[in-house]
Specification:
five-stranded antiparallel sheet, mainly beta
């Protein structure tokens, strides 16, 4: 698996508030072919003076399945509600469940969570995929 991250340009809400969005993408390959692209995103607000900024709220976020090329397979996404964690980071987590789809039965192959953390400077602080 490889990953890519991007940061959207900030939007000024007031002289002391800006909205930011950070994304992290995970890409899975089979025999060198990219078969799954998933993206986790968090949009959040930072308020305060330049010397005293802090993340005040998570505005939006969630997981997106950008590409899925596995025949007879299916991926479901469940987004948790975003929040500001105890370290002051905007936090968004989604759970991705991969299933084998068959007319007679369904079989869960994997369940993974993907979490991203945005900081008060408007950049990706960290991410976890497990």
């Amino acid at each position: 698996m490889r990953t890519e991250n991007t940061v959207d340009l900030s939007r000024v809400v007031s002289p002391q508030a800006k909205d930011y969005a950070v994304h992290q993408r995970a890409i899975s390959t089979i025999m060198g072919i990219e078969v799954v692209h998933i993206t986790e995103r968090v949009e959040y607000r930072v308020e305060g003076t330049p010397s005293n900024r802090r993340v005040t709220e998570v505005l939006n976020g969630g997981g997106v399945l950008d590409k899925y090329l596995i025949p007879m397979g299916r991926m479901d996404i469940k987004d948790d509600k975003g929040y500001v964690n105890s370290s002051g980071l905007a936090t968004q987590r989604s759970v991705f469940t991969t299933s084998f789809v068959h007319p007679k039965f369904g079989l869960v192959l994997a369940t993974n969570s993907f979490t991203v953390y945005g900081n008060k400077y408007g950049s990706l602080e960290d991410w976890v995929f497990n």
